[in-house]
Amino acid sequence: MHNVGSELETTYEGIPASPGIAIAPVHVIARGFSSPEIYEILESDLEAEQQRFLQALEVTKRQLIELQGKLEDLSGDNESGIFEAHVMMLEDRSVVDRVLLAIATRLQNAEYAFYAVMQNFLEAMRRIPDPYLRERTSDIEDVAQRVLRNFIVDDDVRHQTPQDRHVLVAYDLAPSDTASMNRRHVLGFATEQGSVNSHTAILARAFGIPAIVGLDAAVIDIIALTPSILDGYSGKLILHPKPETLEHYRKLSLAKEKVHSALDAMRGAATETVDGRALTISANIELVDDLPLVKRSGAKGIGLYRTEFLLLNGKEMPDENHQAEVYARVVREMAPHTVIVRTLDAGGDKLPVEPLTDPEPNPFLGWRGIRVSLARPAMFKEQIRAVLRVSALGKVALMFPMISGLSEIRKSKELVRRCMDELDKEQIPFNHELPVGIMIEVPAAAICADLLAPEVDFFSIGTNDLIQYTVAADRVNPHVADLYRPTHPAVIRLIKRTIDAATNNGIWTGICGEMAGDIRLTPLLLGLGVEELSVGPQQVPRVGQAIRSLSHAACAAMADEALRHPRSQGVLDLSLSLANKHYPELLD
Ligand code: PEP
Ligand code: MG
Q: Which residues form the catalytic set?
């Protein structure tokens, strides 16, 4: 599919993960050893650049031979054989020639040309079924990394670097990469791995960065600095766009901006259906830096504060005082609205609270969420105390993630009670009636919602996890993305069951999973009876406008029919029919 050296427009398809359009040259990050900087060289510098590569190889060879000598002195011939193999690798003509050719044809700097050739080579090796050969990939990565370190930097070369605005194309991005991304430079990103409900995609939507995941291209084949358009609405990455294509996307961008401005005018207006049912539209946040975005969105509170992102700067949760300071900022900024602080939900695809000695075979079914907190009561108490302390400053609620049964709630509440006693003794003020809620995101909790409801003040359905656990399809694995269906009959029945249990016990139910921000599904969720939708800050105005356009009675009738429907697509179509009827202009 790729057109090496040509300027033909090429389109790659992926899964749309965050809406929007980005037009900029691409910057590529593959996997394995770290990617060097990339820039274009002048044709006149070509030979010098090839020479720089050959020099780096020579230096590396000399180092390896030296190492080999040292090792022979220490431990005999056997061990040093490894280095012999490494030196041979560097003399492999097929690799050397390919790098020289890549420098000449792609006019890329020598480091990057070498890196790209090695990545291709490594990808091919990773696909070999022989485990011995596959293991050798780490040897090759080591040698390649060593060569990269040995390039002498040519300070005279003027080059374009990713400091400029670009579309990032990566094999994969961890949530921490995305959270720390330079948002002024990265106009959009596309990854080969990942799926719509990974935390990386959630962050992209929160930041308003257009994104595509599960790209049908080998990222390493994409040439850096190629002009591109990233269409986060349809999931397309277009390289070397034709002038007509560029024109089309510029127009589309303008049209979308118009819808945006119209929505802006309604920001902060009451979110009530045409027949008078009020819903709270609040926002999900990961970082305190997002608060201005949330305030601009008109959100009526924070429905989910993902505190695990406090781990971004280290492996340990900040102490009680530090947490209290951060939470106080959120509470003060959001007043008079409620802030729901979710206790640490480390693990799964998120930041680990501490590295485990043995890697987990199934991280999503393992050391995650409330399980970690209950096993670390001292750390858990610090977080609870911090939340209690800021409850004196404004409306605050506490929420526990990954609850799978009654005993986890009881143990957690017991710790809350102990923290309250301590604070009373220390004469530190807090809200003695602090609302305590739980995430419903494990099917066991949804099925037993009637048993859990009497214990808590509210439910918040975490559909991201609820879906993955219900249909047994990993939320970050693109190979099973097709099975991950928010409108699966089992999922909507669990949502209904949860809401009914809450209503029978006089408590409210919200949804804070990504499904809440998908306006194709607003009629369905409204009809099922949710009272709060907590969504990414960018989605707040849209979801609010969708609510204002709908009738609760019509949605409830549709939801009744949807609950009897046997297929996900049928359920989606029912919801979409109302969405299309009442707010076609809002749908992407
Ligand atoms: C969820 O699972 O739907 C949720 C909101 O929690 P998280 O995405 O942080 O796991
Ligand atoms: Mg979750």
A: 199, 512
